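Q: What would this chain look like folded?
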Amino acid sequence: MIKTFRGLLTDGGQNRIRLSTKKGKIGYKILKFQTMTADPYAGDAAEHVVKLYKTEQSTVDGHVDFADGNLLATAIINNHTNGFSDPSIPVIIFDQEVFNQDVYVTHIDTQGAISCNYYLELETMTLTDNAAAVSTLRDIRINPQVGG
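A: My prediction, written as C-alpha cells:
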C-alpha cells in the first residue's frame, strides 16, 4: 500500500507527519519526495532546502549533513527571476531506510522568505515483532530524548 502526504511550509517551518502506531508494526519506506516553491515568479531569488527527519528538529537551517542518522531525505531547489539560474540539486533519498515512527519535514529559504510545497510518497509494509522492535530501538538510540 502507498500513502501520500503533501503540505506547504513557510520559511523556517516544520511539519509533523503522524505515522507511529501503538505496536510499531507498520514500517515505511520513501518512494518519492518532491518539492516546488509556492510562488515560482515572486522575488529575485529563492533557494529552498527541504529535509525529512526521523525526529523533531529544534532548529531549521540550510545545513545538510549526510552523517546525521536522523536525516531520511533532502531536496534543494531554486528559482531566480533575474535571469541567473543555478541548476537545482536533485532530491536525495536514503532509500534503504525503513522507519515506523512519525517523521518531520523542515524548510528554509536561504535567499528570502518564500514558502515551499512538499509531496511525500511512502510504501507501507508489515513488520515482524523483531523488525518493529529493532526500528523503534534504533530511533530511541539515535534520539535519546524519546521516552523521557
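The longest helix spans residues 129-142.
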